[in-house]
Amino acid sequence: MANPNVSSAMIELAGNGTALQVRVGYFGYCLTVGAATFCSTDADSLAALLQGIGWSDPLNLLYVAKSFRDNTIFSGLIFICIILGAFCVALLSTFPNEHTEQGFDSDSERVVKPFPSRTVSRLALFLVLAASIFALIAALWQHLSSAATSTMVGTLMYGTVSGQTGTGAMALGWVGTALLVVVMIGLLIMILSIRVLEAIID
């Protein structure tokens, strides 16, 4: 059974303080009080700002946000995905373009679509596969950790604090992962198709 005195004390603390909204991102925090919004890369500076202008944070939401960002959020996988994706795009840009050549008849032309290098194609596939795996891990990590932390904080604070997972951040994470998977599937189909065509020609 929950101790009713604890929940009453939490509700009383929340009632005596200022209604705060704290947003946590990969690179900083945003604090909203009424119509005013303050953003910083350091939670301590936001806490000092609150104290300086006479507002209070009785439930230590900034400390909770700082702990969540320090212990849960990790942006390294996102940067790895971006780097691998950039290398993959660079390799794809080396694929030969179609061009026209003189046909057997001097009055005709034919369109030639040369096959890309097998080595470059496989390397691009490997890079986008690795990027897809890292993106999937990052999206799952971000989604599950945010949802779990929001639920846990709301429970431990006896409903005086509500947490939400950013819809925009989740959408960007999963859409980016889906695009990488589509590129990976496209490259795989291309490589297999070229292999089949070469086998038929030989």
UniProtKB/TrEMBL annotation:
<dbReference type="GO" id="GO:0043332">
    <property type="term" value="C:mating projection tip"/>
</dbReference>
<keyword id="KW-0812">Transmembrane</keyword>
<keyword id="KW-0472">Membrane</keyword>
<feature type="transmembrane region" description="Helical">
    <location>
        <begin position="171"/>
        <end position="197"/>
    </location>
</feature>
<dbReference type="GO" id="GO:0016020">
    <property type="term" value="C:membrane"/>
</dbReference>
<protein>
    <submittedName>
        <fullName>Uncharacterized protein</fullName>
    </submittedName>
</protein>
<feature type="transmembrane region" description="Helical">
    <location>
        <begin position="73"/>
        <end position="92"/>
    </location>
</feature>
<dbReference type="GO" id="GO:0000747">
    <property type="term" value="P:conjugation with cellular fusion"/>
</dbReference>
<keyword id="KW-1133">Transmembrane helix</keyword>
<dbReference type="Pfam" id="PF12351">
    <property type="entry name" value="Fig1"/>
</dbReference>
<feature type="transmembrane region" description="Helical">
    <location>
        <begin position="123"/>
        <end position="144"/>
    </location>
</feature>
<dbReference type="InterPro" id="IPR033481">
    <property type="entry name" value="Dni1/Fig1"/>
</dbReference>
